[in-house]
């Protein structure tokens, strides 16, 4: 394959057979190869390796296509080190300018541009990148639905909206033994209250509303000191933009109330905000029908996780193929999908790619 690296470190491998028309837009597949710090082996990597396997089969079988075929992996899909998530694919489609992206500072205080230079992945291919004919992404479900219903393939119709906020709570450190309870300005206590509020709010709203506090850092973080500062993240998700806005508003109102009640200062910073996304209906139907024709059980479903395909859907028809996750586990080293399940997903991907790339018969 002809491999190029762009200025934000996205990597695209292009396959052109003998009769391929290079002037046509490529049919693209791919995903990401970064993981969360506590991640497994399948999230992202599956979609990239399956794309390479598709190319291998096309070569072995001497399949010749009119359109080029591209396999890509995008920088920083997870966003837990450099926010927002799906940063590389967002830059690829022109949704975030390169300089802003390169200036992103990580949770460990590093600049993305410098980190890319350090690993030699500050490439020269232009951003935004070539607009594909279509984009298809194979991914593990990362949830329990396919496994519990005994279904082989998910045809992903839509992706939840995502709202990430970092809250910084400033109180006052003081002695844990001598400071009367009524005189405390305890940032740690407020962080705990916000945490339980996020859970209660999500339960109360019901539907697809999800709320997570995944990170809390306390200062000075000592057994006998009232916390002077807490920095925490809130991840809110919903398939409905209106409901997501409602959750954000209710969180903001709660923070105002508790700040005045506990005499602390709360400041907020948005880390990521993406509206819910609907994939291309025709392509979703094709995923469904292709899976059925290959003899796999299939269902249309929603993605609870964010994916690069949702960014690509801004510029071209996009859709996703899901395969089951054992015990619904993901963002966990125990993440697992069997070789048979992986092969089913890769087969569906192969057929869709060859069709879209217009095989010469
Ligand atoms: C990306 O993995 C996400 O948080 O959805
Ligand atoms: Mn992923
Ligand atoms: Mn992930």
Structure description:
The structure is a single chain. By secondary structure, the protein is of the alpha+beta class. The protein folds into two domains: 2-159 and 276-356, Zn peptidases (Aminopeptidase), CATH 3.40.630; 161-274, 2-Layer Sandwich (Alpha-Beta Plaits). 32% of the residues lie in helices and 24% in strands. The strands form three sheets. Strands 1, 2, 3, 4, 5, 6, 14, 15 and 16 form a nine-stranded mixed beta sheet that branches. Strands 7, 9, 10, 12 and 13 form a five-stranded antiparallel beta sheet that branches. Helix 6 (187-205) packs antiparallel against helix 7 (241-262). The two termini are 22 Å apart. Bound molecules: glyoxylic acid and manganese (II) ion (2 copies). One manganese (II) ion (MN) binds at residues 36, 43, 78, 305, 331.
Rounded mean pLDDT score: 98
Order of helices and strands: EEEHEHHHEHEEEHEEEEHEEHEHEH
Q: Which oligomeric form is depicted?
A: single chain
Task: Quickly give the structural class.
Answer: alpha+beta
Q: What's the end-to-end separation, in Å?
A: 22 Å
Helix content: 25-40%
Number of domains: 2
Going by CATH, what is the homologous superfamily of the largest domain?
Zn peptidases
The ligands found in this model are:
glyoxylic acid, manganese (II) ion
Query: How many β-strand runs?
Result: 16
At CATH level 3, the topology of the largest domain is Aminopeptidase
Rg, alpha carbons: 23 Å
Uncertain spans: none
Largest sheet: 9 strands, mixed
Number of continuous helical runs: 10
User: What portion of the residues fall into strands of 2 or more residues?
Assistant: 15-25%
Under the CATH scheme, which class of the largest domain? Answer: Alpha Beta
General form: elongated
CATH architecture of the largest domain: 3-Layer(aba) Sandwich
């Amino acid at each position: 394959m002809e491999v190029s690296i762009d200025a934000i470190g996205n990597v695209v491998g292009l396959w052109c057979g003998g009769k391929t028309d290079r002037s046509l837009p490529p049919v693209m597949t791919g995903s990401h190869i970064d993981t969360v710090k506590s991640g497994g082996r399948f999230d992202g990597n599956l979609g990239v390796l399956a794309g390479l396997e598709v190319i291998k089969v096309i070569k072995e079988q001497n399949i010749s296509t009119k359109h080029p075929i591209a396999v890509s992996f995008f920088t920083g899909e997870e966003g837990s080190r450099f926010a927002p998530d799906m940063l590389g694919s967002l830059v690829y489609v022109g949704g975030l300018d390169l300089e802003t992206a390169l200036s992103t500072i990580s949770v460990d205080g590093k600049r993305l541009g410098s980190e890319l230079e350090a690993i030699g992945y500050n490439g020269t291919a232009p951003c935004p990148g070539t607009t594909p004919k279509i984009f298809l992404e194979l991914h593990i479900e990362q949830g329990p639905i396919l496994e519990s219903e005994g279904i082989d393939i998910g045809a992903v119709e839509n992706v939840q909206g995502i709202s990430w906020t970092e809250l910084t709570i400033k109180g006052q450190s003081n002695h844990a033994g001598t400071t009367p309870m009524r005189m405390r300005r305890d940032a740690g206590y407020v962080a705990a209250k916000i945490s339980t509020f996020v859970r209660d709010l999500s339960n109360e709203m019901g539907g697809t509303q999800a709320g997570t506090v995944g990170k809390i850092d306390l200062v000075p973080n000592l057994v006998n000191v009232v916390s002077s500062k807490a920095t925490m993240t809130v991840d809110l998700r919903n398939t409905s933009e209106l409901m997501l806005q409602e959750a954000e508003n209710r969180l903001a109102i709660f923070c105002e109330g508790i700040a005045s009640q506990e005499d602390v200062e709360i400041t907020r910073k948005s880390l990521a905000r993406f509206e819910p996304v609907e994939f291309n209906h025709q392509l979703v139907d094709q995923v469904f029908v292709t899976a059925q024709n290959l003899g796999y059980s299939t269902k249309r479903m929603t993605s609870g996780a964010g994916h690069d395909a949702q960014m690509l859907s801004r510029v071209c028809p996009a859709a996703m193929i899901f395969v089951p996750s054992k015990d619904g586990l993901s963002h966990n080293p125990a993440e697992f999908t069997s070789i048979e399940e992986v092969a089913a997903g890769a087969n569906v991907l192969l057929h869709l790619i060859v069709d879209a790339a217009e095989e010469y018969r």
